[in-house]
Write a structure and sequence with these properties.
The structure is a homodimer. Chain A is an alpha+beta fold. In chain A, strands 14, 15, 16, 17, 18, 19, 22, 23, 25 and 26 form a ten-stranded mixed β-sheet that branches. A six-stranded mixed β-sheet of chain A has the order 4-13-12-7-10-9, with helices on one face. The longest helix of chain A is centred in the N-terminal third of the chain and has 25 residues. The first copy, chain A, is elongated, with a radius of gyration of 32 Å. The N and C termini of chain A lie far apart (65 Å). The interface between A and B is large, with 116 and 116 residues. Strand 2 of chain A pairs antiparallel with strand 3 of chain B. Chains A, B: One of its GO terms (molecular function) is acetylgalactosaminyltransferase activity. Chains A, B: InterPro entries: Glyco_trans_2-like, Nucleotide-diphossugar_trans. Chains A, B: One of its GO terms (biological process) is carbohydrate derivative biosynthetic process. Chains A, B: This is Beta-14 N-acetylgalactosaminyltransferase 1. Chains A, B: It holds the Pfam family Glycos_transf_2.
């Protein structure tokens, strides 16, 4: 590079592209510092070309611009603000199905969403980066503390080049920091011990690092699951790392005992279909003499179902389909339950043990569907959160699966299955069947469970479907089973609010 | 330092403490590299004192030792293996209360714990560190991808000193990496595009960083919540950072409507206490004419409770206390429910709205207890996970609270409360009341919920307790209510297995 004259005017400098060129957009860890750079041989040291009488002023203005730039980069690099989603062609626009004067409804939904965010988000979602060429060393994952319990911070250290004096600071928001008071004769100054900002100063790097190895963090308030961010700083280097604050949870384990009866409970819901139900029970008992059967019954005039290992629960008449499902599942005491509809029939291919085998081999699975008749119905859900004003986009894609279950080529990973499935009791109880869904409903359970339930479908276990019967209650049953359009409309209104959706498509 | 002769024997070197001195125990990020150090002025460059004919051999053996050292440090720095917990004095040792021949029970419990770990742990718990003085820049938190969806990795860059050639690699386990194929004329070599290990080589740092800015990650299998670890490497620098793989979940929001009746449902369980129940209902209706009341009833001979806004569910006789609680809660359609026992009485101080107010102002709260009579009972739980063989230690400490609820000095944060509380329906449904608990049970719900439920207690809302009555069912009620010792024993056995406990103390 040709050597330039020392005389540059302020204007020259301000128009010099090299002087004002901001560093490439660095993802910040709040205040990123890549560290001093090494100038290539032959570079022009720009500070030397600044007129002495303007140096201070120019440096101040440049620093101000740079801080603003960093703030903009920081803002850009927060969790990306949610963007509106695109509805699949053929979707139902939910706001078109709301009752008139739905402005209040929108407001209430927005308020519930804010509460939901307060409950589910924390600083543990914030995007953080490790800046390069930093002399700081710190934990980036896995530093977990119990609430209000002093815990040593692992791995804090400074590896800087030799200096006469080293000063580091560590700052937190939701807790306090402590370290050992240095022994007499050890040249270390500690400021802010027991407060949220700790500063350690020493002429000896070794002594400083010994103190850093003894820093402990104690969160201030009791919270079962949240986080804090610690800002670790040395000269113009800064790093931010997360601290997970979590109340340890005891596990909830089920004793599988020694046979199928202590592992699986059969659950079903019945309404005005006693002939069908009794036919089903007869076939269950052919193959599973002692298995526990739970029946949720909201028939108009309940009839007692006799027999051992049968638990029948009488609900208010016509209480509803999902209310009954939620009731039945709430009573299960075994690790798994098998959902059946009251008009199924067990056959020799209804081998519950085969479903248990797959679940046991894949402990992360929650729901395992089978075949009803020849029909192995399943679907996946394409869901986009959308933005905070309009809501999300939900698209149920029938017959779409992700891939096979490793080791089980006859089984596939999906998001939803038929009404014949084996399920982990605790996982399904955590999602629940929404008792507001009275008549027509199926996919809604899997939508509520999207992201909570690992679902798969298998082709080698099946149940049979009874041919349609005609008996004294059939007409009344059909009146409820095939509800008026108003029922469909209220279901869409439920999707609008409960799942914060903009549109939905049942494909 | 005095200048040493160049002639050192191999033995001299091997005994030289400075040569073999391993670096101080660094917390590793799998293979930590603090980066080259700057030797102090006057240092002896040790490679120069190694006899030339032994240099290669010595270097190899030193490198092998160093790798073993790193492996040992790595092993030391995994998540600390769980250590046995210490039972509080006066605790019940649960293994002493097991049936004879409990070896199989221990085995089954150990198996269930392994499954539980497979379901709840992932690489997202691994302790990771950012090594100091690394030219690598990378994300350390907040990089979240949808399963099987290509996503750009933010913030990857190399800021190394000038060299003729730069080679970086990025390696993952649960997915593949892709980047743009460099345009003709751009001197960049990309190896492993679309595979789990990507290597980028260039003579231009700028070109390399442009390519790094375009690297995307796609997870291989569908999983609702897991992680991957990416190893980013340049020369002898290495960093490991986490990738969160998560299926986005639609929220489940409740419409609070416009009055208390659309916000709160009252729930209760009754057994052989119709006089008490009817007295309670009368007082509820004095203050809340239209509020929905859900009654789970397992009385021997059920009697219909008439009246609007009453939902009565008939259970098998004497089915059980927690089974009934779980049933009642499974039927709630409002955002909150108020739990009451069937022998309470509402008074003018039973202002449900006051409890709702506190819950609404503190959206992270799940359960808010009040006073029964003059008694504001609450407790905290001290829980230590313990080790994998023996299990955890649980200690219920009555009348122990953490601190006040910010803004509500009459309320305190605790782990458990009385049987009079307002609760978020979805949060309590996720924990559940274990239907295996038939008679005596209270704290068990809060133990199952420890770490899942944020619980508080307030002194300004109360309910009254009926004086003990004597009616035709009282004797039979007492026979069930005060069960034989065998009931207490089976409860302890349940704690042993379900919560994987070693000991428990009710203080």
């Amino acid at each position: 590079m040709t050597k330039k004259s020392n005389e540059f005017s302020l204007q020259d400098l301000q128009s010099n592209p090299h002087f004002h060129r901001l560093p490439p957009p660095l993802p910040p860890s709040h205040l990123p510092s890549p560290g001093p750079c090494t100038c290539a041989n032959g570079s022009t040291l720009l500070k030397n070309v600044v007129p002495k009488n303007q140096a201070v002023e120019l440096r101040k203005r440049r620093e101000k611009e740079f801080q603003q730039h960093k703030a903009r980069v920081l803002a850009r690099n927060q969790l990306p603000s949610k963007t509106a989603c695109t509805c699949s062609p053929g979707s139902t626009q939910l706001k078109d199905r709301l009752p008139p004067d739905s402005e209040e409804l929108f407001k209430r939904r927005a308020k519930e969403l804010q509460q939901h965010k307060a409950r589910t988000e924390s600083v543990l979602s914030t995007r953080l980066y490790a800046p390069s060429n930093s002399p700081l060393q710190y934990p980036i994952q896995g530093f977990k503390v119990r609430p209000m319990t002093p815990t040593f911070i692992p791995g804090l250290a400074l590896h800087a080049e030799q200096r006469s004096n080293y000063t580091v600071s560590l700052e937190v928001s939701e807790g306090v920091l402590r370290t050992t008071i240095p022994a007499k004769g050890v040249q270390v100054i500690v400021t802010g011990n027991g407060e949220s900002r700790l500063m350690v100063e020493s002429s000896s790097l070794e002594a400083l690092n010994e103190l850093l190895a003894d820093v402990s963090y104690t969160s201030t308030i009791y919270h079962i699951h949240t986080g804090d961010l610690a800002t670790f700083q040395f000269e113009d280097h800064e790093a931010v790392f997360p601290i997970t604050i979590k109340q340890p949870q005891p596990p909830v384990l089920y004793d599988m005992g020694t046979d199928i009866n202590s592992q699986v409970t059969i659950t079903t819901k019945t309404f005005l279909r006693y002939p069908e139900l009794n036919a089903l029970l007869k076939t269950i008992r052919e193959f599973y003499k002692d298995i526990e059967i739970i029946i949720a019954d909201d028939s108009m005039k309940p009839e007692k179902i006799p027999g051992p290992h049968i638990q029948q629960f009488i609900m208010p008449p016509a209480q509803g389909w999902f209310a009954g499902r939620n009731l039945a599942v709430s009573q299960v005491t075994t690790k798994y339950f098998l959902w059946v509809d009251d008009d199924f029939l067990f056959t020799k291919w209804t081998k519950i043990e085969e479903l248990v085998k797959v679940m046991e081999a894949n402990p992360e699975l929650d729901v395992l569907g089978g075949k009803v008749g020849g029909d192995q119905f399943y679907f996946s859900l394409i869901y986009d959160e959308g933005d905070e004003v309009e809501g999300g986009c939900m698209y149920r894609k029938s017959r779409r699966r992700f891939h096979s279950l490793p080791g089980y080529p006859q089984c596939s990973v999906v998001n939803g299955v038929v009404n014949f499935f084996l399920a982990r009791t605790d996982a399904v109880q955590r999602v629940g069947f929404d008792p507001q869904l009275k008549r027509l409903a199926h996919s809604e359970f899997f939508m509520d469970g999207l992201g909570s339930l690992m679902v798969a479908t298998c082709g080698h276990v099946s149940v049979s479907h009874q041919a349609r019967q005609k008996h004294k209650d059939t007409r009344l049953y059909k009146a409820f089973r095939y509800p008026p359009r108003s029922d469909a409309r209220s279901k869409l209104q439920l999707h609008f609010f409960k799942n914060h959706l903009k549109c939905i498509k049942y494909g």
